[in-house]
Amino acid sequence: MRLVFNDQTFSFELLRTLSYAPYGGADIGECLSTAYRIKEGDFESWYTEWYKTAERIQALADDSLKRGNRISAKEFYMRASNYYRTAEFFLHGAPGDPRILETWDKSRSAFRQAIQFMDFVEQVEIPYEGTRLPGYFYRVDDERRPTLIVHGGYDSTGEELYWEVAAAALQRGYNCLTFEGPGQGAVIREQHLPFRNDWENVVSPVVDFLWNRAEVDPQRIALMGISFGGHLAPRAAAFEHRLAACIANDGLFSFQFGEMGRKLQQGFHGDLDDPINMEKFIRILMEKNVNIRWAIENGMFTYRAKSISELVAKTAAYTLEGVADKIQCPTLVCEAEHDHFFAGQPQMLYDALACPKTYMKFTAEECAEEHCQFGALLLFNHRLFEWLDQTLQVGK
């Protein structure tokens, strides 16, 4: 699926931003007109044009608020938040760039201005190893209900998880707790805590936080991880057995940059077990491929790696081999038919599971073939919550 851009990475990130339209995170014309102003493959052009659009929508939000138009203000703030998030996306190649914090903070601030007009959301801080993880608790009402914990992956923010799944959860009678862990959102940008492999030590404090809340049925707590989160969430579920269900969207068995490099080695004759050769080879790939350049730059940012070799070493432990079979709760593994990030990985995860399991494939015929089903979030949420209703026996 190509949208405006020939470059796959730019096209996908545009699709991702646009996909939040059904839940109030974007408007179609705003996204397309911004995209047409961007120079293909140019990270600076991407930042400039999305920032310009975000600032324009933010100004409309501020004006609506001054005029007392609360609904319009909320809608404008929501979209401004998503556009600022999109603007910041490709800046991580220079971790010291002040625009990273400035633009990301504007995204978070706009979202928090919007939720002032939503009486079903609570900004929360979850105790975690001497600090706190930021999150949002979305509740249907004061009754005890099934609750879905959601975290993102390699590059997502806690705010965008509202448009991706939390809004749909509320519509279907589920509470939803979204949060950011190490390597993500505020935790990497403000606390400088990088990703960690033992994600169960991140998720267990989140379950603790929910366990005694009056609105939460502790026997019906599910966990979903999105994108890279499709690796982290199953890892957590292998050791945190209070979870009633786990969703990997999309499933990811391993996330090892060394192995990824070896799969792309054709034409390069150096020994990739040599860190110097591996670094040289990946830099060659980065010059030729926007997606690889972004993946490495974002990886060095979120893992706090000072070199590509260090990034390769830091990701070596990210495999579910010998771990996936420890998961006990029913697990849903999602696959996007034309996933350009992790082709083949969902099947590897599914095959390694020994728990009750479901494989859910999304296809081009359904217009849902892109990574994490962007472009078809209404369909995705329909199928996700049908599975959850059945698995958690909601309504029975």
TrEMBL record:
Top-level taxon of origin: Bacteria
Name of this protein: Prolyl oligopeptidase family protein
PANTHER family, per the entry: CONIDIAL PIGMENT BIOSYNTHESIS PROTEIN AYG1 (AFU_ORTHOLOGUE AFUA_2G17550), DIENELACTONE HYDROLASE DOMAIN-CONTAINING PROTEIN-RELATED
Pfam family, one: FrsA-like
Molecular-function GO term, any one: hydrolase activity
Keywords: Hydrolase
